[in-house]
Amino acid sequence: MITKRDAKVALLAIVVSLALVAVADQASVLHSTVFEWNVMTAKPNNVGSVRFVYRGPTPTLDELEMHITTLNPGVASHPPHHHGNEELVLIKEGTVETLSRGKWVKAGAGSIIFNAANEEHSLKNAGTTPATYFVVNWKTDRTPKTTP
Asked: Are 107 and 115 in contact (CB under 8 A)?
């Protein structure tokens, strides 16, 4: 038999658990912050290196993902592909070629590339020096869960 005291303890435990989950969810949401270049570590890979910046929710996005790639001369970051989310690529230095709407287009330092959802794209270093670029991806409730 459950007593009133047992019910009160159980109710208190449920309320505390829900409050802890809510606080944990809020703590994982990205709020205004600064990501300092000199603190981020470049991790070498087979095409150059990558600096992972952030991947997680924000107050308005289901997921924000940011990384910085340094691509060696003459290589592609990956084969042409597409995905359900949109992304921006901001060229910091070097010269790249990007596959955009079926055509290869050159882009230099200061250029911005927008890759729309589910449109094939790719990027390769078209120069003789490393190319560094920032990638910003985001997902909302309207982003397809799977890529067609």
From this structure: no
